[in-house]
Amino acid sequence: MKQYPTAKATRLTMKHPGDLSALDQEIIEGRIKSADIVAIIGKTEGNGGVNDFTRGYFTQSLMLLLSKYLDATIEELAEKIPCVLSGGTEGVLSPHYVVLTRSQTEIPPASGDKALALGVAMTRPIEAWEIGTETHWKLTLEAVKRAMEDAQISNPDDVSFVQLKCPCFTVAAAKQAVAAGKSLCSGDPNRAMALSRVAGAWGVALALGELSEDQLSAEAMLSDYSLFSNRASVSSGVEVSAVEVIVLGNSPDWSGHYQIDATSMVDALDLDAVLKLRETSKAQTSEVCGVLVKCEPDRRGQVRGFRHTMLDDTDINAQRHIRGALGGLVASVFGDGRIFVSGGAEHQGPDGGGLVAVITKRP
Amino acid sequence: MKQYPTAKATRLTMKHPGDLSALDQEIIEGRIKSADIVAIIGKTEGNGGVNDFTRGYFTQSLMLLLSKYLDATIEELAEKIPCVLSGGTEGVLSPHYVVLTRSQTEIPPASGDKALALGVAMTRPIEAWEIGTETHWKLTLEAVKRAMEDAQISNPDDVSFVQLKCPCFTVAAAKQAVAAGKSLCSGDPNRAMALSRVAGAWGVALALGELSEDQLSAEAMLSDYSLFSNRASVSSGVEVSAVEVIVLGNSPDWSGHYQIDATSMVDALDLDAVLKLRETSKAQTSEVCGVLVKCEPDRRGQVRGFRHTMLDDTDINAQRHIRGALGGLVASVFGDGRIFVSGGAEHQGPDGGGLVAVITKRP
Amino acid sequence: MKQYPTAKATRLTMKHPGDLSALDQEIIEGRIKSADIVAIIGKTEGNGGVNDFTRGYFTQSLMLLLSKYLDATIEELAEKIPCVLSGGTEGVLSPHYVVLTRSQTEIPPASGDKALALGVAMTRPIEAWEIGTETHWKLTLEAVKRAMEDAQISNPDDVSFVQLKCPCFTVAAAKQAVAAGKSLCSGDPNRAMALSRVAGAWGVALALGELSEDQLSAEAMLSDYSLFSNRASVSSGVEVSAVEVIVLGNSPDWSGHYQIDATSMVDALDLDAVLKLRETSKAQTSEVCGVLVKCEPDRRGQVRGFRHTMLDDTDINAQRHIRGALGGLVASVFGDGRIFVSGGAEHQGPDGGGLVAVITKRP
Amino acid sequence: MKQYPTAKATRLTMKHPGDLSALDQEIIEGRIKSADIVAIIGKTEGNGGVNDFTRGYFTQSLMLLLSKYLDATIEELAEKIPCVLSGGTEGVLSPHYVVLTRSQTEIPPASGDKALALGVAMTRPIEAWEIGTETHWKLTLEAVKRAMEDAQISNPDDVSFVQLKCPCFTVAAAKQAVAAGKSLCSGDPNRAMALSRVAGAWGVALALGELSEDQLSAEAMLSDYSLFSNRASVSSGVEVSAVEVIVLGNSPDWSGHYQIDATSMVDALDLDAVLKLRETSKAQTSEVCGVLVKCEPDRRGQVRGFRHTMLDDTDINAQRHIRGALGGLVASVFGDGRIFVSGGAEHQGPDGGGLVAVITKRP
């Protein structure tokens, strides 16, 4: 009998970053099959910075659980299943994770309808000297296209949210590259991490037709903030060596009751955009299975003409500030603190604004 | 010719906690008369805790400015003009202050209309052993009634927001009291400060008929959170020895274009309450001259059934968390980061919820 | 052939809280036998507070490693091998851990000499209503005595350092106990944790003859700070249900080149005490294998007559302040940042002072 | 009768950053003449970062006090009397300030002896495009020489400590400069502040013969850390437009019982250097009137071969970490928490090390 792909998003809570009991329960009671898990996107209660180890702890605990069910080691699973975590549950935000699964169904897609579709892909390893360069965004562009194929989404407009994990060089790799006569995008590791995110975002923008190659240049990175993607959400870190891509969208070829809708916010006070998204996605009458937000404190030091103090605070990191504020806004719209809010949104949405996507399940 | 009282609220920005240049400009250009200033309510960019000195710095700078115009020393002015400051401009919040002035006008109140009215009063000094006790709330009750008279508000329903500053004993005063055989409400200074706020809130609740005396007891303080005022906003500190009261409401006997509206939020996600307040107050078509919020992280560790992490965070104080989240919500509704958001809201609004008041000027 | 007990302390570094590669290397290269590991005491780079998950992450990673070598699950190992961690490597402190092992040797103890000896013991589970009470300190007293026997130390003067992990009730257990008509030592979880540490410290003091039972009372807890142990280092948490005891001292019946020396500091500036300990322990000519410090910000708000600001800082937790300061002092004396510094030292050493122990290996 | 210059250092405590009552008392009781005050160096209890307003609050309060005694406005006094403040009293550090006064005496200097001498000078205003450049260090060199003349110190070896305040451009000034076709030392304000400190430090090193002009270049700034001054302590900020110089040393031409001694620490654990300084300065038998420390977290991420975590901590600023650790060490040596410890020590002492100076009064 003919089979159709179908995707599911399950939002679960944790008691602490090492607690995967909710997923274990889902597996034990048969609601989630461990082999169907494609990716996990979650929010842990760390500080979201370099020294946030709640992400590593959650990932180790997750892979430890899955290794009980799947015939693979913790290390093998960590390479196979992308686990995208943002640390920091400021304010009303609640620690949680969204499990994305993919399986086959005999129920054909409803005619004229689109359902949640998801696809993953990976570039080849990016060399230290390629990070944050044209090579980086070109390889990302290709990987996003392959992830779209994997998701059977041919129309870029049907892509709602592209989550990337981009590599970053370690100090050791940087030294080796320099010794070998190569030049790096930046000698400053924080700037290199940011440039890696920009290259990733631009790869997405190219794949979705938001930007064209002739607009892009090394000089425009972290400088011309009008060159952004409205659907890219990028994190970067030394724990990956290639770009990992998760494409979320809606496809007429997929079956199921789930859908994803997205919008961008022009600034950190753009309540209207989020209220409209609630309307569009019918979030009030459907079950909300995941809300994904990407944001950044406005670099110009103001929101709607009034000074903010996020960038000059020695006590609280600026990303923690903006996550708390945006989290308060978006959580109030959806009536739920289980919102994935991630900072570090250079060239991902308008400067000082953000992206919001919501996954719903129709009743 | 007959004169009528009229009140005005002017919202000004600061570049740093010692910057009063905006108020100086208002005075120089004649829009504010220094002698008309009744009270100031503001938000400075400190941490809002015991070691937040931005409040003292702003107050000193304010009184230094006013002493240039009024025939009084800095110390005399500090005793005369209540300056209520909340430290901490988390997230999108913007440092600012609202100058409340009161003057006389020949224009009579519009018939059938009510305008912004304000009154102030003060209790006698509260002794160390009276703080946080029945005496404290009874004296507050009387002072609120006198402030209502001062504001010419006879109907308690016309009171929208009562801001109090309550005294707290120093370690030295506590020692003296104990040596004199007196017992204190608590030996723990933080608990004593909280009990002082509760006694203040209950004084307001009694004056406005929200609670009756037989409901109140020392045992119910910080324990039965159903006993709250919906219109009290209380801070406490060692810098005052009496309870200072500012009553804000609307009165048929006052003239002018300003009005105040208020509501309470059932929890930290209660967007609907704030949207309704925006509607009621016609904030979208009027000029907003001040927004006042009081809030508290939910003591039960959850918001709408999901765990929050505010109370267990060793890195960021819980009050900073909730101010950032509520600030993000309320600022997005009014499209402006200049929101006064203050924590420490025990028995001021429902547990885990908050109070919001907005002062508008009709076009 | 006759066998004699012998103890060893190995100090290892970590790259992050999930990195146990240094221990793995020791095991692979045969310097440490996994079956000999009795306990681990370490310092991870978290914040040391309730929301410090680096301790859980390290413990999980440690047990995951040991489960590769020993025929036991992660859970079984976690119950068997005490892993005492203090989060927070403020200032010059360096993340590290000391692995304590115990084995048998044919080499008899040198006559007239004492060598490092260690013993462990555990009380029966402490019920929620027993925590922080006389029962708690009496059970601890017995357990310390058993741990001393295990260490073959009969003279209490030969005990240098007693590390305890004391239980604390969860909110759920507290509710159950109250429902069953039991009363708890305190309704405030933070105070209950502190009382649990005091009861533990007093159990040690009784076992070592530092205090006698008639001196102790519930009233004196967290009140009469002259009642302290000079050799107890206590942590408390919900992760244990019984009191876990590790006794470290020197015994004439043990063989080996290791020894432990200890002292107490009268206040946070007591450099002389630490310099003398360096002298006594011959730390400058021996290999230092572990330095253990317990300390607390002075509750009276002063150090040697001058105000400190640790207790009133809303930005940085007081325990982080004192660990950074004491860490700077002790690390400078031993010329090494790998110092275990733990706060929460109520009734463990003089108020505002601390304990320091050093394990050395003679050349 | 012949008059000789004499200097005095008085160390005073504060209850909070707005409390100058101790200085007021000194003036009232005649121990300090307000007109003799040359400079003030102090430590306030802020966070030491951009948003530390305790420095501005203290300065305003100081000038407010002095304006009561001297015929000058607050603004005039602020331009005339350098007030160098470092925010952040981490760990055992105690808020305090050292008042440096200069007067004339009829008592001639003891033959063969040197006494504390101090001199001040100022460069012309430094233009935005000159900050952090060769012009900046050349102008500083000249100003240090003038301050040495003012202090009557001809031998550079007699200079112990040179405190500078260097200007930094505001965003507005930067824009203007760029619009006028000028190029700035850096577009990044934090880097520009650091470069300003380096240029200042190099000006001192040139004046004292520690470095020669041909060793210096723009490329070596923040890169070749072997090019440092052992006696410069530099802060930078937008509140000054010229370089302010305070030279502290010992001169055979000055009279009095005060002296200053200084040393450098090779790293953050260099207890020996501080113990030797205590010896040299006879601090244990004299009255200590001020201890001045400059330090920096080691950029290489290690102290004596072991990893520190200061540079990667999102919760606590790296400068707060190192101040707490060095403060703990130095305060323990002098038995007093009133130590001025300032970070931001680029090219001021060896990388990862620091400078320490102590002012004593012979009995």
UniProtKB/TrEMBL annotation, chains A, B, C, D:
<protein>
    <recommendedName>
        <fullName>Cyclic amide hydrolase</fullName>
        <ecNumber>3.5.2.-</ecNumber>
    </recommendedName>
</protein>
<feature type="active site">
    <location>
        <position position="165"/>
    </location>
</feature>
<feature type="binding site">
    <location>
        <position position="197"/>
    </location>
    <ligand>
        <name>substrate</name>
    </ligand>
</feature>
<dbReference type="InterPro" id="IPR014086">
    <property type="entry name" value="AtzD/Barbiturase"/>
</dbReference>
<comment type="function">
    <text>Cyclic amide hydrolase of unknown substrate specificity. Catalyzes the hydrolytic ring-opening of a cyclic amide. Does not act on cyanuric acid nor barbituric acid.</text>
</comment>
<feature type="binding site">
    <location>
        <begin position="235"/>
        <end position="236"/>
    </location>
    <ligand>
        <name>substrate</name>
    </ligand>
</feature>
<keyword id="KW-0460">Magnesium</keyword>
<dbReference type="GO" id="GO:0046872">
    <property type="term" value="F:metal ion binding"/>
</dbReference>
<feature type="binding site">
    <location>
        <begin position="86"/>
        <end position="87"/>
    </location>
    <ligand>
        <name>substrate</name>
    </ligand>
</feature>
<dbReference type="GO" id="GO:0016812">
    <property type="term" value="F:hydrolase activity, acting on carbon-nitrogen (but not peptide) bonds, in cyclic amides"/>
</dbReference>
<feature type="binding site">
    <location>
        <position position="348"/>
    </location>
    <ligand>
        <name>Mg(2+)</name>
    </ligand>
</feature>
<feature type="binding site">
    <location>
        <position position="55"/>
    </location>
    <ligand>
        <name>substrate</name>
    </ligand>
</feature>
<keyword id="KW-0479">Metal-binding</keyword>
<feature type="binding site">
    <location>
        <position position="353"/>
    </location>
    <ligand>
        <name>Mg(2+)</name>
    </ligand>
</feature>
<comment type="subunit">
    <text>Homotetramer.</text>
</comment>
<feature type="binding site">
    <location>
        <position position="323"/>
    </location>
    <ligand>
        <name>substrate</name>
    </ligand>
</feature>
<comment type="similarity">
    <text>Belongs to the cyclic amide hydrolase (CyAH) family.</text>
</comment>
<feature type="binding site">
    <location>
        <begin position="342"/>
        <end position="343"/>
    </location>
    <ligand>
        <name>substrate</name>
    </ligand>
</feature>
<dbReference type="Pfam" id="PF09663">
    <property type="entry name" value="Amido_AtzD_TrzD"/>
</dbReference>
<keyword id="KW-0378">Hydrolase</keyword>
<dbReference type="InterPro" id="IPR043008">
    <property type="entry name" value="AtzD/Barbiturase_RUA"/>
</dbReference>
<feature type="binding site">
    <location>
        <position position="345"/>
    </location>
    <ligand>
        <name>Mg(2+)</name>
    </ligand>
</feature>
<dbReference type="InterPro" id="IPR043007">
    <property type="entry name" value="AtzD/Barbiturase_RUC"/>
</dbReference>
<feature type="active site" description="Nucleophile">
    <location>
        <position position="235"/>
    </location>
</feature>
<feature type="binding site">
    <location>
        <position position="296"/>
    </location>
    <ligand>
        <name>Mg(2+)</name>
    </ligand>
</feature>
<feature type="region of interest" description="RU A">
    <location>
        <begin position="1"/>
        <end position="106"/>
    </location>
</feature>
<feature type="binding site">
    <location>
        <position position="350"/>
    </location>
    <ligand>
        <name>Mg(2+)</name>
    </ligand>
</feature>
<feature type="region of interest" description="RU C">
    <location>
        <begin position="258"/>
        <end position="363"/>
    </location>
</feature>
<dbReference type="InterPro" id="IPR043006">
    <property type="entry name" value="AtzD/Barbiturase_RUB"/>
</dbReference>
<feature type="binding site">
    <location>
        <position position="349"/>
    </location>
    <ligand>
        <name>Mg(2+)</name>
    </ligand>
</feature>
<feature type="region of interest" description="RU B">
    <location>
        <begin position="115"/>
        <end position="252"/>
    </location>
</feature>
